[in-house]
Amino acid sequence: ADLFDGIVMAEQRFHGEGYQEGYAEGSHAGMAEGRRYGALHGARIGSEIGCYLGFALTWHCLLQKCTDEKSSKKIRALDSLIGMIQKFPYEDPTYDKLQEDLEKIRGKFKQVCSMLNIRSDFRIGTERSSLTF
Question: In whole angstroms, what is the distance from residue 22 CA to residue 25 CA?
Fold first, then answer.
């Protein structure tokens, strides 16, 4: 009876074993793919934020010597952008308002570009190497 029972239940047993092996392999592959995606996406965000910070600091230095009212408004907007970037939680990927704060920084960057009469979608170099946000 045990031999017959083993034959009848073989399909169910192999199905269960296959499921467990597939689940384990899929979990492992999913973790590896998630890490790669997270690293790539994090690097893109870091590069974007770094570009905004370099842009803001450079313009802040350039406008320091200007004393007119328009320049002081531009400097205040740059200070606001720099402050937003400095408060951005780089090291906390679980921060629930990460995308919201990133959109606010992008909006402030566009506002500063408008005040400085610079296109916010500026391009550098050839068509292949460009900065687009």
Answer: 5
Q: Are 63 and 78 in contact (CB under 8 A)?
A: yes
Give me the helix-helix angle, 10-63 and 69-87, nearest 10°: 150
Contact status, residue 75 vs residue 60, Cβ threshold 8 Å: yes
* pLDDT tens digits, 28-42: 888 989 899 888 988
N residues, the chain: 133
Tokens of 118: 């610079």
Per the CB < 8 A criterion, the answer to whether 85 and 78 are in contact is: no
Fill in the amino acid letter for 104.
K
- Rounded to whole angstroms, the Cα distance separating 85 from 73 reads 19
| pTM score above 0.85 | no
